[in-house]
Amino acid sequence: MVDRQAQAKQPVSAALAGPYGHPFHPILVTVPIGAWVASLVFDVASHLVAEPAFLTQGSVWLIGIGVLGAVAAALIGFLDLFAIPTGTPAFRVGLLHMSLNLAVTGAYAANLVWRSTEYGRAAPVEGGMLALSALSVAVLAVSGFLGGKLAYHYGVRVADEATQAQGYLPRGHEPDRPT
Fold first, then answer.
1. Where are its TM segments located (predicted)?
2. Among the four residues 6, 87, 140, 177, which has the most C-beta atoms within 10 Å?
3. Are 89 and 154 within 8 A, CB to CB?
């Protein structure tokens, strides 16, 4: 079991997925999460102001940025998924996490196409577009929970406990590091 767990901690390609104990996927996911949550805020705010055009247009841009960021995060996430041994609970959670993220990215890509047909309109975001964004953010939250489970419960791409323990040694007791 320990060998299978250690396998999930090592990158498939450190150059692409990030070095041991410091994966790139969690850094990259901040782009789509932030963009899509902000787009939902813009959508709601477009119903609260007298001139909503800047908010509806800003939301379209944020959705596009989120889709591009999600593609980058997914490419690196695939590498992290490949490090997890198949047939394990961690792999099954990883597959579900990936599937939900792909569904959310597809929903936002569709939402982007839908909105591009009405780009520049001075009205608030339509109810259907807003509902699709809200549902997508809710599914994204579930997927994020699963991503947290992969890292914090199963330790995927997290340094082993001996490496982690080095961060808690008193000053002057750190192990010698080769230079």
1. 27-49, 61-83, 95-114, 129-147
2. 140
3. yes
For residue 159, give the DSSP letter: P
Q: Based on the number of CB atoms within 10 Å of its own CB, is 63 exposed (0-12), middle (13-18) or buried (19 or more)?
A: buried
User: Phi and psi (nearest 5°) for 88?
Assistant: -115, 160
Domain ranges of the chain: 23-159
Q: What contacts 177, CB < 8 A, 6 or more positions away? A: none
Q: What token pair was written down for 126?
A: 């339509």
* Of 109, 124, 110, nearest in space to 55 by CA: 124
Q: In this structure, what token pair is assigned to residue 103? A: 């569904």
Alpha-carbon 3 to chain mean position = 27
CA 128, CA 139: separation in Å to the nearest integer? 16
